[in-house]
Specification:
Layout lengths: L7 H15 L8 E3 L1 H7 L2 E6 L9 H10 L3 H6 L1 E4 L3 H13 L3 E5 L5 H9 L3 E4 L4 H15 L2 E3 L5 H7 L1 H9 L5 E5 L4 H13 L4 E7 L4 H8 L25 H8 L2 E5 L1 H15 L9 H8 L8 E6 L6 H8 L3
């Protein structure tokens, strides 16, 4: 029988507990005003540089909270997971920190820079399948056969609570924020942030941003149930891929998120270039989605205080150059 969906208040309380659990080992990432984006859009625009988080993305928050929420017996047995890169990097670092054995499955198409970083951490890495969905199904089967906990990149309330600690920091560090724009893949990050802000700052709009090429969440919300789409390649590879059937993130997204902005590949590339040229940051495609969403729909935010969550930086310099034309 399915468990009832937690309320925003219940999730917010869990996020506060998660923050106490992990705050000594995470980075409280900087919130910085962006004159360039503010000028171009007529909004007061801030960036939260979550790309400066341990392992280069927000994923470390959820991974560490998940492992610290396991029982002693579960920790002793070890865990299994699957990842296209950022979740794997974060979980590998958290597993090392906690002394938990990790078997990590990656799709054969995982980005080279992320593969190398994960392999360098010395964990048990295996490759299966050509996309993250097939890889995850295989990894879940391995976890079931071995009796170990499977750690989902997003479909897990402990992961969501950990990711939501970014929302706790936003509420404290930019209390005047009116709009928060967050990249969307599986929906774990935005579910946590939106839940915390709905409970603590109910006037704030939390909006998701997806690439048109992989807009599974927007299509599912429009249909009223999870759907598959004809996915195309995207510069925002960290959010690519479908949403697991029965994922808790889908009903949370429908309940808590104010809307979704869809952006094309040229907008993603332009946002990546702007963050490089005006802020000196090499942000991966997924991390540039909020800036792309704002720049694509400035009229929706004019005169408002907007925070963009730059979620990750794990992109190879040659891929960044190929997308943006910048070194």
């Amino acid at each position: 029988m399915a468990h009832p969906l937690p309320s925003a208040r219940e999730l917010a309380d869990g996020i506060r507990a998660a923050h106490e659990r992990i705050r000594a080992d995470i980075v409280r990432t900087t919130v910085e005003f962006s004159p360039a984006l503010s000028e171009r859009t007529g909004a007061r625009v801030y960036l939260k540089w979550e790309c400066d988080q341990t392992t280069g993305s927000f994923k470390f928050r959820g991974a560490l909270n998940k492992l610290r929420s396991l029982s002693a017996a579960e920790k002793a047995a070890g865990v299994v997971s699957a990842s296209t890169g950022n979740h794997g990097l974060a979980l590998a670092r958290a597993a090392k920190l906690e002394g938990v054995a990790l078997r990590l499955f990656l799709p054969e198409t995982a980005a080279e820079i992320k593969r190398k970083k994960i392999e360098a951490l010395g964990i048990d890495v295996a490759y299966f399948g050509s996309d993250c969905g097939r890889t995850e199904v295989h990894a879940r089967g391995e976890a079931g056969r071995s009796g170990r906990v499977f750690v989902s990149p997003y479909n897990d309330l402990d992961i969501i609570r950990g990711a939501g600690t970014a929302g706790l920091e936003i509420a404290a560090d930019l209390p005047e924020a009116e709009d928060i724009l967050v990249p969307v893949g599986g929906g774990g990050l935005i579910a946590g942030i939106a839940a915390f802000l709905m409970a603590e700052r109910p006037g704030v709009r939390t909006m998701g941003v997806e690439p048109v090429a992989s807009a599974f969440m927007a299509a599912s919300v429009a249909a009223g149930h999870l759907v598959d789409i004809d996915e195309q390649e995207t510069a925002a590879d960290a959010v690519a891929g479908g949403i697991e059937p029965g994922s808790v993130t889908f009903p949370l997204y429908r309940e808590l998120v104010a809307g979704t902005l869809l952006v094309g590949e040229p907008a993603i590339a332009a946002a990546m270039a702007l963050l490089r040229e005006r802020h000196g940051r090499m942000v991966e495609g997924a991390g540039a989605l909020p800036a792309a969403g704002l720049l694509s729909s400035p009229e929706a935010f004019r005169g408002r205080t907007v925070l963009l969550l730059a979620s990750g930086r794990n992109i190879a310099p040659d891929r960044f150059r190929a997308i943006t034309g910048l070194a």
